[in-house]
Amino acid sequence: MSFGYTVLGFGSSSGSPFVSATGGSITTSGDYTIHTFNSSGTFTVTSAGADGAIDYLIVAGGGSGGDHNGGGGGAGGLLTGSTTVSAGTGYSLVIGSGGSRGNPGGDGANSTAFSLTAIGGGGGGAQSGSATG
Prior knowledge:
By secondary structure, the protein is mainly beta. It is 0% helix and 36% strand.
């Protein structure tokens, strides 16, 4: 079984008008329009606004804990920053899943967006000395 919760958030608070796009679950907070992706998809820019600036949050899948009283899995990597996007462009987003249970625990998968990669968390070791994570 795989467990993971991954979010990619996008928005712009500079320039006027703001970036307009489709994709993911869309909510707003103040000047921000937030596109949340819980599975892989496409972020399509319909208008780049004044400067095409967006902020992003990319989270990779976390590692699974190890079996038989093993160690906990590592958190998925996290990237934040800003970039610019172009109108009429679809940006492919790959959402990394959480690691699967095992002996040792499985590693989380990477998440990618905008030519950036957040690295998945490492799986936890198992109680037996030969099963390291």
